[in-house]
Structure formats: structure tokens, C-alpha cells
From TrEMBL:
Pfam families: Cytochrom_B561. This is Transmembrane ascorbate-dependent reductase CYB561. It is a multi-pass membrane protein. It comes from Cebus imitator. Residues 19-220 form the Cytochrome b561 domain. Gene3D superfamilies: 1.20.120.1770. The gene is CYB561.
Length: 251
């Protein structure tokens, strides 16, 4: 049995991926450090419940979502089905963690009697979460559920990629809005005096922006896309024949 041909990995790609992971892990660690040093830490049944929100969002809607987008760049020669499942699972984990973050902030507001959904950050956050859930649901229906036709998958693929990158970009922007809002609420006018918390949070904001930029750069390099494998093309043609009655010879 002949070995499967493997596509070569672009020379610079592993370095950019490694850099993105360094940025992502650093921003998650720095989020935890910010909450621990200046916000008292994290706990569910206390006044610290709110702090669950930014940590969950940093892990779920920023780091894990970014990694899910990179799956097709990192795993270039693995079976397409395996790569799809990993891509979908990472998005599921991100969605669940983000949901915990949403529950935390709404529950905290309810206990304190605070108003909900009045700020630009909260509006953008709900928009991002709804779009993310819909994107995952539609993506599962088209690419993992066996009932979708080949032509539907082909027509939707470009939109799926576009909305995935757009939702990720919106997630980063919403996180930056939330970070600025949290600093202004606590520091107020002292923010302009280069308070240590403000400086640390500003560095965190830069890490968020850099992580988002590196991930989007990797995604938009056309020569870094996962190449189609010969067996994937054959399977796609067989699936089209079975679902639509097309004959390969008629193409």
C-alpha cells in the first residue's frame, strides 16, 4: 500500500504559530495575575464572582477560539475528518467556558442589583456570543453532520471562514472594551496617573491586540492554507456523486 503524500510545511509557519501560542498563554496568565493582584482573585460564591467573567472570556473567546481557527494551518497532513472534529471540539470548549463567564456576570449583577446590558461592551459581548453560537451550529450542520450536500458545503465554506475570522476579531475588540471599562470603573481619574494596575492592564490590552493580529495574519496568508489531499478530493467527488447524482465523468 502506497504511503500518503504529505504537504511540506512553509518554513516560517511554525514560528508564527509558536509566537501566537506564546502570546495567547501569556495573555491568559496575565489576566489571572491582574485579577489576583488587583481584583482580589476569583471565587463563585462571593464578591469575587465577577472576576470569573474576564478570565473565562480570555480563555474561551480569545485563546481557544484563536487556536480553533489555527487547526487547519497546524494539522496540514492529518485526516480531514480528524481535523474537523478537533476544530469543532475546540470551539465547543470555548463556547462552554464563555457561557460560564456570561452566567457569572449576570448572576453577580442580579445579586448586587446592578443593571444589565446597558454598556457598549455588554451589547458587543452578547452579539459576539450569539454569532459564535450560530456559527458553530451552522458549521456543525454543514461540515460534521453527514446530511449536508457537497454543493451546500462548497457554497458555504467561504462564508464560514469569513464569519469565523470576523467573530474572532469582534471578540478581541469586545475584550478590549471590557478591559477599558473595568479600569475606568475602578481607577477613574487615577487611570491617567499611571497607576500600576492601569499599566498592567494596558500591557494586557496590547497582548490581546497582538494575539488577534498574529492569528489573523496566519489565517490570511494564502500560501499557508492547508492543501487538499488527493484522497480528500476523491472523497469529495464520491460524496457529490452519491448526494446529487453527478457523475465524475460529467465534470
Amino acid at each position: 500500500m502506497e504511503g500518503r503524500a504529505t504537504a511540506s510545511t512553509p518554513a516560517a509557519l511554525p514560528y508564527y504559530v509558536a509566537f501566537s501560542q506564546l502570546l495567547g498563554l501569556t495573555l491568559v496568565a496575565m489576566t489571572g495575575a491582574w485579577l489576583g493582584l488587583y481584583r482580589g482573585g476569583i471565587a463563585w460564591e462571593s464578591n469575587l464572582q465577577f472576576n470569573v467573567h474576564p478570565l473565562c472570556m480570555a480563555i474561551g473567546l480569545i485563546f481557544l477560539q484563536g487556536d480553533a481557527l489555527l487547526v487547519y494551518r497546524v494539522f496540514r497532513n492529518e485526516a480531514k475528518r480528524t481535523t474537523k472534529v478537533l476544530h469543532g471540539l475546540l470551539h465547543v470548549f470555548a463556547l462552554i467556558i464563555a457561557l460560564v463567564g456570561l452566567v457569572a456576570v449576570f448572576d453577580y449583577h442580579r445579586k448586587k442589583g446592578y443593571a444589565d446590558l446597558y454598556s457598549l461592551h455588554s451589547w458587543c459581548g452578547i452579539l459576539v456570543f450569539v454569532l459564535y453560537f450560530v456559527q458553530w451550529l451552522v458549521g456543525f450542520s454543514f461540515f460534521l453532520f453527514p446530511g449536508a450536500s457537497f454543493s451546500l458545503r462548497s457554497r458555504y465554506r467561504a462564508s464560514h471562514v469569513f464569519f469565523g475570522a470576523t467573530i474572532f476579531l469582534l471578540s478581541v475588540g469586545t475584550a478590549l472594551l471590557g478591559l477599558k471599562e473595568a479600569l475606568l470603573f475602578k481607577l477613574g481619574a487615577k487611570y491617567s496617573l499611571f497607576e500600576p494596575e492601569g499599566v498592567l492592564a494596558n500591557v494586557l490590552g496590547l497582548l490581546l491586540a497582538c494575539f488577534g493580529g498574529v492569528v489573523l495574519y496566519i489565517l490570511t496568508r494564502p500560501d499557508w492554507k492547508r492543501p487538499s489531499q488527493a484522497e480528500e478530493q476523491a472523497l469529495s467527488m464520491d460524496f457529490k456523486t452519491l448526494t446529487e447524482g453527478d457523475s465524475p465523468s460529467s465534470q
